[in-house]
């Protein structure tokens, strides 16, 4: 690959990473546009890349790709046998099963010419800030009951929370280097973290709040080697105080939503009333359990699951209003009802393989806090989406599926790029890491030199 072309591909990958993360919840069709641009770039890489580029792929990348391909293949086989593509609420028929397969060449392209890891942090900060500002505008100016940016409020709130949590990792990244050039990122990351969490709260997405303690544990795990303990305690206390203030504010609607959960639970368990948000979910889960018991191995299939749900409602075995839903509001139950245990296995691997790969990098990077921050950020994605999936089938949503796949892949590409930069630094005089030097200044030079050496 010519020198200038190799550098251009590396820069293009960085721009694509920034655009995807920043625009995921801000612009309706941004995830499609960025994905198509990424696929076009991958075709360019496939045609022009040399053997040394592909040699950088290793067993961990193979595991990642295998999990993606298995999930997509099982879903496509189910579409083939049932004769129906997924029907998405408010969007109609969509070819979602193809997305995991299309992400494989994206992962390979990002690994062959990795992006600059800082683009992940800038993208998360811009995306979280935008989501929070949109939520404030819709609630305070437009008077909307739930902030949503014109999409389903649940994916909007869940992704806002995840982007805000990634912005907290950007705070740690900025504090890790403590240089003037990172001051702007630090200020933006602090603001973005607050706005992202605020966007989730104003969306009224209660299921996403379940994920908050777990992602905060990952933040704490990454921060303990970066910040003194007194700063950690101050940060945890400040975050708890901020969340408490937001909860008690009448205009936030959070307290009302929490009280509604208690009321719904009492009416369901004491009176058998399923005509509320919680009762409806419990009935959908019960219907899913019945359908899984009927066809445990391969499930009822796409679209036929809805027919089976309607039949249960007509027979009076579940609450009759469940038929208004096109999903069972639980990722595992919905997958099991449609694709059986085979589908559940592919789903578990889709969560578990990236989580295991990021955990392995976190455990082996005890003396590299920046790698720990990136690895913990990567772990956030499957952990958060698993928690989101307890009350919502996020992977049957356009932004939910693209968000999970895309964020997993860009976090992995950023981590491996940083890992490679640190590994190559002792062998390069211009990228040498010595006490008192700014590691990221050397990293920028490393990315340029790598593009030239591999061209």
From TrEMBL:
Residue ranges annotated for the O-antigen ligase-related domain, each copy included: 191-347
Sorted UniProt keywords: Membrane, Transmembrane, Transmembrane helix
GO CC aspect terms: membrane
Identification of the protein by name: O-antigen polymerase
Database matches in InterPro entries: O-antigen_ligase-rel_domated, WaaL-like
UniProt keyword annotation of Transcription regulation present: no
Subcellular location: Membrane
Annotated membrane topology: Multi-pass membrane protein
Transmembrane residue ranges: 9-27, 33-50, 62-80, 92-113, 120-137, 157-175, 182-202, 208-224, 231-249, 340-359, 371-389, 401-417
